[in-house]
Amino acid sequence: MDKAIILFDRIFFILMTVSVGYLSIFALFSMWGVKKRYPPSPKKYRFLILIPAYKEDKVIMDSVNSLLNQDYPIDRYQIVVISDKMSGETNQILSKLPLNLLVVNPDESSKA
After folding, report:
1. What is the DSSP string of 8-28?
2. In contact, 63 and 33? CB cutoff 8 Å
C-alpha cells in the first residue's frame, strides 16, 4: 500500500513539474518580446466621464483626484459626478472642484 502511494505521489509530482515548467518557459520568453513604441497622437479627443456615486463619501475624493491628475489636457475632457445620498459636506467640497456636480433628489430617486 505504501509503495502505491509513493508511486502516485511521484507521478503527480512529475505531472505538476511538467505543467509548471511549460508555463515558466512561455513566461520567460514573453519578457524578451519587442516592445512597440506608439507615437503620441496629434489629435486629442473630447470625452465625458460620468461617475455615479451612491453614498460614496469615503472614496469619491480619491476617484475624482485621480481623474483630475490625468496626463491629458483638462479642456479636452469633462467630469460629471452624480451625487446620490451623499453628505452635504462632500457635495460642498466637490462643488469647488473643476467638475460638474449633479445632486439627485432623494425623494424622486429609485434603483431604476
Report:
1. HHHHHHHHHHHHHHHHHHHHH
2. no
Tell me the residue type at 48.
L
The C-alpha atoms of residue 27 and residue 22 are separated, in whole angstroms, by 9
0.85 surpassed by pTM? no
pLDDT tens digits in sequence order for the chain, 112 residues long: 688 888 999 999 999 999 999 999 998 888 887 778 888 888 889 999 999 998 888 899 999 999 999 888 888 999 999 998 888 899 999 999 999 999 987 676 666 6
| Residues 77, 22: Cα–Cα separation, whole Å | 45
Which regions of the chain does DSSP assign to beta strands (E)? Answer: 47-54, 77-84, 100-103
Grid coordinates belonging to 108: 424622486
CA distance 64 to 86: 15
Any bridge partners for residue 80, and if so which?
50, 100
The grid cell for 83 is: 451625487
